[in-house]
Amino acid sequence: MLTNLPARVTITEVGPRDGLQNEPAPVPAVAKIAFINALADAGLTQIEATSFVHPKAIPQLADAEEVCRGLPSRAGVTYSALAPNLRGYDRAAACGVRRVAVFTAASETFARRNINMSIAESLSAFEPVLRAARGDGVSVRGYVSTCFDCPYEGAVDRRRVLEVVRALLDLGVDEVAISDTIGTAAPTDVVATVGYVLQHVPRERIALHFHDTCGTGLANVVAGLELGVTRFDASAGGLGGCPYAPGAAGNLATEDLVYLLERMNISTGVDLRKLVAAARGIHEAIGGGFPSRQMRRLEAGRGT
Amino acid sequence: MLTNLPARVTITEVGPRDGLQNEPAPVPAVAKIAFINALADAGLTQIEATSFVHPKAIPQLADAEEVCRGLPSRAGVTYSALAPNLRGYDRAAACGVRRVAVFTAASETFARRNINMSIAESLSAFEPVLRAARGDGVSVRGYVSTCFDCPYEGAVDRRRVLEVVRALLDLGVDEVAISDTIGTAAPTDVVATVGYVLQHVPRERIALHFHDTCGTGLANVVAGLELGVTRFDASAGGLGGCPYAPGAAGNLATEDLVYLLERMNISTGVDLRKLVAAARGIHEAIGGGFPSRQMRRLEAGRGT
Prior knowledge:
By secondary structure, the first copy, chain A, is of the alpha/beta class. The first copy, chain A, has helices at 15-19, 29-41, 64-70, 86-94, 108-115, 119-136, 158-171, 187-198, 217-226, 254-263, 272-286, 293-299; strands at residues 10-13, 46-51, 78-82, 99-105, 139-145, 149-150, 154-155, 175-180, 206-210, 231-234. In chain A, the strands form two sheets. In chain A, strands 1-2-3-4-5-8-9-10 form an eight-stranded parallel beta barrel, surrounded by eight helices. In chain A, strands 6-7 form a two-stranded antiparallel sheet.
């Protein structure tokens, strides 16, 4: 066991979007830009900066244009943004965004409550986005929420997960993030569902997006690594959750993920101390929140 | 992977001792007894109730006699107590304690700072304890601290861990808890060190004691399960740490462990809601602390 681990993992940092979209009070664009710059300084190369949803749906991200326009171009760093429909895509593209993300679910009820569409309708809505992106040379990531449990429907059938993953790949997304939206999965679930998907889909196309609601986030990452997955999402400072998912509390903290991977001799390219500094900065900007473990540990001068 | 999991795991609950010994203000004995009773009500069968160290060393546990005498005898429940030397053992035995624990380390510097003895001296000090226990029919557990990293010496040689584990078993302890005292280990470390020990020692004699300082606690449990270990320590509410171990912050929360195991179809015999109620009770008695994940989740009515 653990004998065939990858040498390197790519982390997609989702804190600026998935984290800050849940903050009760909007964070100023300048603080978001500082946060994203600090994340890039720490070595993160894939950073989901914001979402081009309708400003009324998520007022916390109504400054999407300002944030994207304020980000400096950096070699090796890709900023992405959610673009739920063509209108959102056009706004993103107008700001020079070169990678967008689309968002659906493996559970019908969750899709309807989260994005106000059926899964089939969401896939149809993505078609013009994918077409436009292809024309512009913009890459597209797809999220599939509630791949393990749905807060409304309970356990989700892995065949349904595979269907939605395949549909997204067929549409032309280059990577699908299989998401444990409410953070209830255990490693056995990862083996059952992700292992099944990987029997039909190349592992290079799959990222795993865990929430740490039940403390199983890193255990699930290890299960993913053993399955050959090398792409994981996380949120600096453990920010975030999902406003439409009761019980979802906190993305897997990027600091915890980086600690685990580096300790296992898997390279992330991320400087843990700089990452903790970035997390501290945004915690101060949002006026608190639970510090992550590495924030408590490294800020107490106890890191080794 | 994860195909050969045990059907059942035994949890040793260490919150009343390892948790409460670190609280700044002593907790009244009556609150400790209520906590232990609530833990037994939740289904925990192995509960480390207190420590018979010198009251000046850990004033928080100076009421060891009162606590032990206040615990009702319950079928299937074993209360244990630390007995670092013959004097402590005699105090424990006088209260009717039927299971004691001795405490050493795999790192010399940590042993000297934590128990003020070399490892060899500690093993010698245990001899009369083991002899008396054998005579009384009292069972003895052994702890080995700092089996992965030492806060003073850094990485600990797994051969040293095996030596100390073997020495304890040779002395007559029935179970050795291999402890990640500062909570820095990752699953690869568990495989390297515990896997090595298990090449030489029956797995039935080994328990694993993880701290969750870096969020790797459950991932390490899964690695232990895959190695065939079926005994794990945890602390209700995630209480505790180690006053002599800089950077140690919080035992693995029993709630997190129970959630993981039950989700993986491994029976613990523990009722998660009752366990969270027990954790809430002691949190109120100590006046706060960080709630564990399951405390936040289940108390918000979000458990499934």
